[in-house]
Amino acid sequence: MSDHENQRILVVDDDVELREKVLLPGLRRFGFEVHGVGSAIELYKWLVGNSCSMIVLDVGLPDDDGFAIAKHLRETTAAGIIMLTGHDSKSDHMRALDAGADAYFTKPTDVELLSSALHSLSRRMSRSGKADLPSALQRWRIEADGWRLVAPSGSVIALSLTERAIMKKLGSADKPVPREDLLKELDDVVDDFDPSRLEMLIHRLRRKVECKSGQELPLSAVRRMGYMLSV
């Protein structure tokens, strides 16, 4: 699959305003080629003549059950699947994963968070499906028990005690880490850490990494969620 195809997304949601006014333009802003349909039958018709690497699938479509659709897609395509639902229930989450979904989000969906999940899923699919995978030196990684950050270029950045605490917490998570969790991590290594210093610490860490490596650290703030590291 080409890099272009690896960024092609199909959004399946019958909420026209959400699909056309929020999801499609929002995901395009994050670099994806996105197409949208509003029903199961439109999904199947679209797939006859087109291909995509990932599908964002609403659970509550008018003409079929989203979980059944996800199971069918998992059996008949190689596309990654992220499911959306208006119901924040553990049972629905488990049903989605059992049906073959790679991730599950509750509406209203934060487009920045959704795009981060899609980029992460795209990288995992690329690593598992390509013969010319990026080597370890072409990815961000944390070494030496968290005291050393290595950029894709190979540049090495030594981390301070507080920077190490932040990077280890973010590097071990596959979703945004709440601000409160980062503060707790910092409080464990620094006595009476001032919560107001967190944003400045992250800002200085980004600048330090960019200055030493010439590359931007993929650490982003996710609105109302916390911070996320994409490595």
Secondary-structure map:
Blueprint: E1 8-12, H1 16-29, E2 33-37, H2 40-49, E3 54-58, H3 66-76, E4 80-85, H4 90-99, E5 103-106, H5 111-129, E6 141-143, E7 148-150, E8 156-158, H6 161-171, H7 179-189, H8 198-213, E9 219-222, E10 226-229
Parallel strand pairs: 1-2, 1-3, 3-4, 4-5
Antiparallel strand pairs: 6-7, 7-8, 9-10
Helix pairs in contact: 1-5, 3-4, 6-7
Describe the structure.
The chain has 231 residues and is of the alpha/beta class. It folds into 2 domains: 5-129, Rossmann fold, CATH 3.40.50; 136-229, Arc Repressor Mutant, subunit A. It is 44% helix and 18% strand. It contains 8 helices and 10 strands. The strands form 3 sheets. A 5-stranded parallel β-sheet has the order 2-1-3-4-5, with helices on both faces. Strands 6-7-8 form a 3-stranded antiparallel β-sheet, covered by helices on one side. The longest helix is centred in the middle third of the chain and has 19 residues, at 111-129. The protein is elongated and about 55 Å long. The two termini are 21 Å apart.
Known CATH architecture of the largest domain: 3-Layer(aba) Sandwich
CATH homologous superfamily descriptor of the largest domain: Response regulator
Q: What order do the strands of the largest sheet run in, or round the barrel if closed?
A: 2-1-3-4-5
Shape: elongated
Radius of gyration: 20 Å
Helix % is 40-55%
Encode the helix/strand succession as letters: EHEHEHEHEHEEEHHHEE
Q: What descriptive keywords fit this protein?
A:
231 residues, alpha/beta, 10 strands, Rossmann fold, Arc Repressor Mutant, subunit A
